[in-house]
Design the sequence.
């Protein structure tokens, strides 16, 4: 406990430096700005804004990226409430009750409770990250290659189980991601694999290009397909403060959402979308008046918003302690860290404590800023939402392209994005979920490396994964999860969670 | 690329046969090309690393022929064609790693893991395709990615291959893409569906081609103009003004505010 306080105060010392506060503020603001825009998720936002952090010191860059991430989460809820279009996929459920509240002239309290819920969730999960950091890191040090491999298998299986849609297709799409990650030079021998003699491919297919193509461009193409009209709340947003009754009604929802979100955030393959859905479902189960959900109930805003914010923060835990990204956004953070010369994993905390604790402290500061700054700026966001999509999407495209190009100053990367845009659109049309592919792509090199190392140490005996107890239990757990996901009863429940009402 | 089908739930089974000839043909062509490429690469040596992809390709070719001759009823097109495409990807991966070393004693070679995962992908892709024959689903939402796919592939073929044949092939792909795009856009029924992907991908390829020789200002402006055409709502005057604004913003933000190395103007001006 004493250590925790000492560490956190060191973190706040780093995060409170004027320069870092400024970066955190810019990150949170820019993140909100882009999060507000419908049709561009936090993944594409981070990918797009990655280049602007190149010139910064590593601590500052990560603080800013983290700020962009939860700023985007936050901005997403604003759009959900005011326009009935989720600005982020994680705020899909917020539209259900949030927009109804806005229609009844209660947009102010809805926005405020989303902010307050997010802030409380942010405080709790910041402490959780700090508290779990040290013990998990010591567990990580017990892990050998076999355990790491099994852990990643578990992570990928979690991604399959928690994804919506067919289990078989999710498994297949993960394998596509794993194969994509193997393009380029072999880690051990340096032999070029599946690169088709293209020199640019010998470094592998860039994760950012794939993410941008599949999520950014794929998403734009889908939006162009269905030009739905936008139903922006026209009236001026007045009376931000929720009433005492609102606060009373939502306090339980915030607490439950926070806890559920924190747990789902830590689980590999989880993340913010599932957290928001699960929290909403839980609220409905707990509520005395489940039939009123969807008509503008404040609990229906408070729970998912707290949950997705909690999850977005606790998903840093596996990344910072084990070096394993639990979802696609964190996978992109790995990319960002590597660009800055940081290898994510247990050694971050021991070798660069100021980075680790500074980032955690900045999460709390960022959340505070979001509440203080963003609520007065709601009017500005509303005006931004009036910008028609026909102007918006060329802007998104050009920023993405310039950003991609500036990664390596290479037109090849830009063309790669076009190719993966086509792939992303195809995946959407054929009902494949692209997020597991990205996760597979990021875990691929780590998985292969640990698989090879484990096999080498065991002298080619594949049973090593089952004879080491920790590894065996992880694999058994994955198998159980997979079986559960295929079982009809669970499958029905799982589909229920994803049904939008 | 397989082609989608009109969405009309009642006509599902009848409709799904409409494009089966085209889709099956693509599958057969893919199988023939991969088998030919494998034989060209490996000679007539039937056993060895090149064997698995050939076997899978033959199976895929037979399936494609069955689809073409309408011998199979595809009840769930999304899954069927999705699975088939994944099997195709697995074949490509197996072919591309056929020349690399596999296991060396108990140590993994560079090709071991990719082959392992590609083999698994072939199995799972096959399972997805089979599930597409057994389950019922509404027909695919119609789409046509032929022109964008041809263009983005042509970019790589053109820039990263050696020899006249390949260059000619790339140009052929671009021209074919243009022809398909032209007819797609002329056809009032298909215009809405092909418009977005065509102009979006075109604008990205234009950016890739112009950013080096022409500089940031030109590339940004042209890209914004072309990408804006992806929606029928585009208005000329507004788009030009918006292009100019974005160009100004980008040329101030990236080279100056963020100090990234960008050339603003065409090479020949320097």
Sequence:
């Amino acid at each position: 406990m004493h250590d925790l306080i000492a560490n956190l105060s060191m973190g706040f010392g780093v995060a409170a430096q004027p320069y870092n506060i400024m970066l955190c503020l810019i990150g949170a603001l820019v993140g909100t700005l882009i999060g507000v825009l419908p049709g561009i998720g936090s993944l594409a936002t981070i990918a797009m804004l990655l280049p602007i952090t190149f010139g910064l010191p590593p601590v500052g860059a990560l603080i800013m990226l983290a700020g962009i991430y939860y700023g985007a989460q936050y901005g997403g809820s604003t759009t959900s409430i005011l326009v009935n279009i989720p600005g982020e996929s994680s705020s899909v459920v917020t539209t259900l009750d949030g927009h109804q509240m806005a229609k009844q002239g209660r947009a102010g309290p809805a926005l405020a409770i989303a902010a307050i819920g997010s802030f409380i969730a942010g405080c709790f999960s910041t402490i959780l990250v700090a508290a779990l950091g040290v013990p998990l890191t010591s567990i990580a040090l017990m892990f050998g290659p076999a355990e790491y491999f099994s852990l990643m298998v578990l992570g990928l299986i979690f991604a399959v189980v928690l994804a919506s849609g067919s289990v078989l297709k999710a498994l297949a799409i993960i394998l596509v991601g794993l194969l994509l990650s193997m393009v380029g030079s072999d880690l051990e021998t340096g032999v070029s694999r599946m690169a088709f003699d293209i020199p640019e491919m010998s470094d592998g297919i860039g994760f950012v290009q794939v993410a941008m193509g599949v999520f950014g461009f794929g998403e734009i193409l889908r939006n162009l397909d269905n030009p739905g009209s936008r139903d922006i709340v026209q009236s001026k947003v007045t009376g931000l403060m929720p009433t005492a009754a609102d606060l009373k009604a939502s306090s339980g929802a915030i607490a439950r959402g926070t806890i559920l979100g924190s747990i789902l955030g830590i689980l590999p393959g989880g993340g913010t979308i599932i957290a928001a859905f699960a929290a909403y479902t839980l609220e409905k189960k707990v509520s005395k008046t489940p039939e009123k959900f969807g008509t503008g109930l404040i609990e229906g805003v408070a729970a998912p918003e707290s949950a997705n914010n909690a999850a977005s923060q606790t998903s840093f835990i596996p990344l910072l302690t084990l070096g394993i990204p639990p979802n696609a956004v964190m996978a992109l953070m790995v990319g960002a860290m590597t660009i800055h010369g940081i290898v994510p994993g247990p050694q971050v905390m021991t070798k660069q404590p100021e980075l680790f604790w500074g980032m955690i402290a900045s999460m709390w500061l960022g959340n505070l800023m979001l509440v203080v700054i963003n609520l007065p700026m709601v009017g500005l966001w509303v005006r931004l939402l009036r910008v028609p999509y026909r102007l918006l999407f060329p802007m998104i495209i050009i920023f993405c392209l310039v950003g991609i190009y500036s990664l390596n100053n290479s037109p090849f990367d830009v063309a790669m994005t076009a190719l993966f845009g086509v792939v992303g659109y195809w995946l959407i049309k054929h009902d494949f979920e692209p997020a597991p592919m990205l996760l597979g792509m990021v875990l691929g090199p780590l998985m292969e490396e640990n698989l090879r190392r484990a096999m080498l140490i065991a002298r080619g005996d594949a049973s090593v994964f089952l004879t080491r107890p920790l590894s065996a239990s992880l694999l058994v757990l994955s198998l159980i999860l997979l079986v559960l996901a295929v079982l009809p009863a669970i499958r029905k429940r799982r589909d229920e969670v994803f049904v939008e009402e | 690329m397989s082609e989608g089908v009109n969405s009309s739930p009642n006509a599902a089974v009848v409709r799904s046969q409409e494009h089966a000839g085209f889709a099956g043909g693509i599958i057969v062509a893919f199988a023939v090309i991969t088998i030919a490429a494998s034989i060209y690469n490996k000679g007539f040596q039937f056993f060895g690393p090149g064997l698995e992809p050939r076997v899978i390709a033959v199976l895929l070719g037979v399936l494609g022929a069955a689809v073409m001759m309408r011998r199979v009823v595809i009840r769930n097109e999304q899954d069927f064609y999705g699975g088939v495409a994944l099997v195709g990807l697995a074949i490509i991966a197996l072919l591309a790693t056929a020349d690399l070393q596999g296991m060396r004693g108990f140590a993994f070679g560079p090709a071991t893991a990719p082959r392992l995962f590609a083999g698994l992908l072939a199995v799972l892709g096959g399972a997805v395709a089979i599930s597409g024959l057994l389950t019922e689903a509404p027909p695919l939402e119609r789409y046509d990615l032929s022109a964008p796919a041809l263009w983005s592939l042509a970019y790589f073929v053109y820039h990263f291959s050696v020899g006249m044949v390949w260059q000619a092939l790339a140009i052929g792909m671009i021209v074919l893409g243009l022809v398909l795009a032209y007819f797609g856009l002329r056809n009032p029924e298909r215009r809405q569906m092909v418009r977005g992907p065509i102009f979006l991908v075109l604008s990205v390829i234009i950016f890739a081609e112009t950013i080096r020789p022409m500089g940031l200002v030109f590339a940004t402006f042209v890209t914004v103009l072309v990408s804006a055409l992806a929606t029928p709502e585009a208005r000329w005057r507004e788009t030009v003004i918006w292009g100019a604004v974005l160009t100004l913003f980008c040329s101030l933000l990236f080279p100056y505010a963020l100090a990234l190395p960008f050339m603003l103007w065409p090479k020949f001006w320097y």
Chain B touches chain A through 85 residues (CB under 8 Å). Residues 1-14 of chain B have pLDDT under 50 and may be disordered.
